[in-house]
Amino acid sequence: MICRLDYKVPGGKLVRVSVDVEGGTASRVRVAGDFFAHPESAFDEAEAGLSGLPAADLPEAAERAFSRPDLALYGLEAKDIAEALRLALTQAARQES
Fold first, then answer.
1. Would you say 15 and 76 are in contact if contact means Cβ atoms under 8 Å apart?
2. Neighbours of 76 (CB within 10 A)
3. How confident is the model over 18-30, as pLDDT tens digits?
4. What integer best gives the mean pLDDT of the chain?
5. What is the C-alpha to C-alpha distance for residues 11 and 27, in angstroms, rounded to an integer?
6. Over 80: is that where the pLDDT of 79 sits?
7. Using CA atoms, how far apart are residues 77 and 70, in angstroms rounded to an integer?
8. Domains of the chain by residue range
9. Do 71 and 39 contact (CB within 8 A), yes or no?
10. pLDDT at 97
11. Across residues 69-85, what is the average pLDDT?
């Protein structure tokens, strides 16, 4: 199952999430949008760290991963990425049933 969602952060930017879920596990997670992250390498590491986790744990894991002290987000916060993932997973689950 592939979960995709575009989420407009209230008062902020657009975040686009895509999650490939196989057997309840996130095999690939992508986060993009019209926000900025610095340094990009820290963002990439946070994003990569989400792959292999249970899909149900992604929102909480994403909030922790993108709240790293060495990562600055501009136009959104880690909680916004978590919310986008939660909404994408919920929407995909509804479509499957």
1. yes
2. 26
3. 999 999 999 999 9
4. 95
5. 31
6. yes
7. 14
8. 2-88
9. yes
10. 66
11. 97
